[in-house]
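Worked example

This section walks through a single chain of length 196. The input is the sequence exactly as stored; nothing has been trimmed or padded.
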Amino acid sequence: MNTLFAKILRKLRSEKGLSQRELAEQVYVTRSAVARWENGSRLPDAVMIAKISRCLDTDVNTLLSVATESDHIPNVIMVDDRRIFLAGALPILEEVLPNANIICFTRPSEAIEYAKENQVALAFLDIEIGKTSGLDLCRTLLELNPCTNVVYLTAYIEYSFDAWSTGASGFLLKPITPEAVREQLQKLRYPFSGGR
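Given that input, the structure is written out below as tokens.
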């Protein structure tokens, strides 16, 4: 939680005479996104902080410096259409990634909606998610945030060749193990601070 950033944002918004909804409209996010920033449960990225600072007529460096002092918790998603796999894999991710916010989805559409409102640092994606391809889901997530690390999950090693063409960071065979997840964390394309 970043209570300092939340407190400063609330103060600056109030001084400007804006409601959460009005600020949200000016920076093109939902009111709930602003509410999460102001309760300290989420932190906007640097591009959004620049927009907020312009909207609130404040120095962008002030907001950025407060944000970098954050104890920001990275968001990790896992998408698989089989609940039984998610139930077994979630404790493994929680063990390996104790400093991360881990959310599981059985529907790709829900994962996409989440990624539109939250910066996803790491995504574990099944390659076959019902009728949806995890390869296509990867491409969509990377369009939303090019710095998302994507690790594919599958029981079929032959998918690995197709997977590499999507910009993914890694590949795990099911069932996953803590050791295999830790090994993948060492190979991620972008910095990630949720593991131990």
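What to look for: The chain has a mean pLDDT of 88.
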